[in-house]
Amino acid sequence: MPPALTRAQSRALPSAAPRTSVALAAAGVAAMLLTACSTTSDAATSADGTSAATGSATRTVDSEFGEVTLPTDPQAALGMYTTDLDMLITLGVPLAQSQPIRDNGYSTFPSFFDQEALEGITPFTNFPEFSYESILAAQPDLVVNGLGYDESIGEKLSEIAPTYSFNGFDGSDWRVKFEALAEALGRTAEHDAWTEKYQAKVDDIRARLDAAGLDPVVGSVGVNDDQVTVSCYGTPCLVFDDLGLDITPLSDGEGAYLSFEEVGQLEGIDAVFTSMPPETDGSFADSFEALAGNAVWQQLPFVTEGQIFTSDLEMIYGSPSGQYAFLEEVEKALLP
């Protein structure tokens, strides 16, 4: 786990040692899995890549964890994590009628996802505890699993449906994984369309910043217990970098951990971006409430000038809609 996350971000990041909400060893689920395996995994595949059981064509592709055989035209795909679901939506892959969401303050899909694509789809909680029973009940014909840091997750999912796994939380640029997924699913045109749309937005914002003579120093800042953290985890610094913004050097390397007495080191930042789960009405609590009585904090320019901007925590975990939505948040903040 990246060390410079805020307390809210730390609670929300997928763990390398997840628990399951319903044990796969339970007799009912085990029986269902055996039934599923007998009709999918054991099905013969003809020389032209057609499954004898389903009549659907398949293709064998490379993944981070070796070769996998996937349907060429999935009709009920499922994303193991919300970022995976967003990738499927962006690539135009038909979805299973129920899809996972996270707990930690969320009861439905992120508001910045394509709501039209999610119409009629029922959410079920699948984080921080995984519900393999609910995944099986969704009857997916393809699972995209970005939680590949734990190979056992992919192994369990493969008993339910063909599964494409990758590690979406290794600290690298999520777009590399997204491009590989698009190639694996034969959806490069959809991937390229999103990339072009995103880059056009970046170019427009950069041009307007230049026209306005704006070159602020920005930082992704939060509070973790009794420390202020500055980091480059997730989409924020990807967006900052794409826009050519000046990112505070406190973000370099592993980031910075500042005691409340050291917050004066933030003085060179012009605009602070932070994230947390939204309230039920879409508003956000004060991320920096613990610093309300800190005289040094209260005198920092970005505090006195109201340059603290809070966005939905889900945006920072790399996915197409998340990154585009955060780009729009930066646009609204710097070009009001």
Automatic annotation (TrEMBL):
It is found in: Cell envelope. Residues 76-336 form the Fe/B12 periplasmic-binding domain. Keywords: Signal, Transport. Its main location: other. It comes from the Bacteria. GO terms for cellular component: outer membrane-bounded periplasmic space. GO terms for biological process: iron coordination entity transport. Residues 1-43 form the signal peptide. InterPro entries: ABC_transptr_periplasmic_BD, Bact_iron-sidero_bind. Coiled coil: none annotated. PANTHER family: IRON III DICITRATE-BINDING PERIPLASMIC PROTEIN, IRON(3+)-HYDROXAMATE-BINDING PROTEIN FHUD. Belongs to the bacterial solute-binding protein 8 family. This is ABC-type Fe3+-hydroxamate transport system, periplasmic component.
